[in-house]
Design a protein that fits this description.
This protein has 249 residues and is of the alpha/beta class. It has helices at 37-53, 69-78, 94-108, 127-135, 188-194, 235-244; strands at 2-6, 9-11, 33-35, 57-64, 82-87, 112-116, 139-149, 152-159, 162-169, 172-176, 199-203.
Length: 249
């Protein structure tokens, strides 16, 4: 079995983000970069499937600058077998990402693609769905449990009314939710081995994929500061404030 896992380089959630002067992006100086947390969960799930099945080829893929090698090496240190970096100087929209992935998948021919349900930087949450449509593959999003049975997968996903269980034939696209698993830490032997594992670079231009942007970021703004709280003296006063000022009752 071959499992392809997507990896995106994103700012550390603990990093203080500053808006660039032109308002079209963030200041990247002194920003710590990490593996997108949902992608880290996807890597862990692929490794667990590999261990349970007694063997599988876990391939990581990222799209971005050459600096994304660091995040791919992190995944390799966790236990993935090899990695692919599609080198792109420009940030790609979700549809362009899906097109690039579809092109790589056409050559790799994996049995299963596991992706984080979304990236924490832009929160688009649509690349996996778009990829499934381009490939014509079944998809199971927001997975909280994945069970493989030969040529099919049973995926439990969380929905508003509770849990939904989907059965999908392979190959398929699965996107990982937060409660799917707890990612492991890379061991020292794993880190040493990661240095020797294959990391192939592919220039974006070599894929011949249309990555022209369809949208433009007009402006980014930080959220407004929350006003201080206010104490009331009684339940009656609270009801009056909610009714007359907040207009919520």
């Amino acid at each position: 079995m071959k499992i392809l896992v997507t990896v995106k380089r994103v700012p550390d959630p603990e990093t203080v983000i500053k808006i660039a002067p032109d308002g079209a992006g963030i200041v990247t100086d002194n920003v710590k970069w990490v593996v997108n947390p949902f992608d880290e969960i996807a890597i862990e799930e692929a490794l667990r499937i590999k261990e349970k099945a007694g063997g599988a080829d876990v391939v990581l893929i990222s799209i971005g600058l050459k600096t994304a090698q660091e995040q791919l090496r992190t995944g390799l240190a966790m236990g993935a077998d090899r990695a692919i970096l599609v080198v792109s100087e420009q940030a790609l929209e979700p549809l362009a990402v899906a097109r690039v992935l579809a092109k790589v998948i056409d050559g790799e021919k994996p049995d299963l693609v596991i992706m984080g349900k979304q990236a924490i930087d832009d929160d688009s949450n649509c690349a996996g769905q778009m990829l499934a449509e381009l490939l014509g593959w079944p998809q199971a999003t927001f997975a909280s449990k994945v069970e493989l049975d030969g040529k099919s997968a049973k995926v439990t996903r969380e929905v508003d009314g509770g849990l939904e269980v989907l059965g999908v034939p392979l190959p398929a696209i699965v996107t990982a939710d937060l409660r799917l698993n707890e990612p492991r830490y890379a061991s020292l032997p794993g880190i040493m081995k990661a240095r020797k594992k294959e990391l192939k670079e592919i220039p974006l231009a070599d894929l011949g994929v249309d990555t022209a942007p369809k949208a433009k970021v007009v402006k980014l703004e930080t959220p407004p500061k929350r006003s201080a709280g206010r104490k009331v003296g009684s339940v009656q006063e609270l009801v009056q404030v909610l009714h007359n000022e907040a207009k919520v009752i």
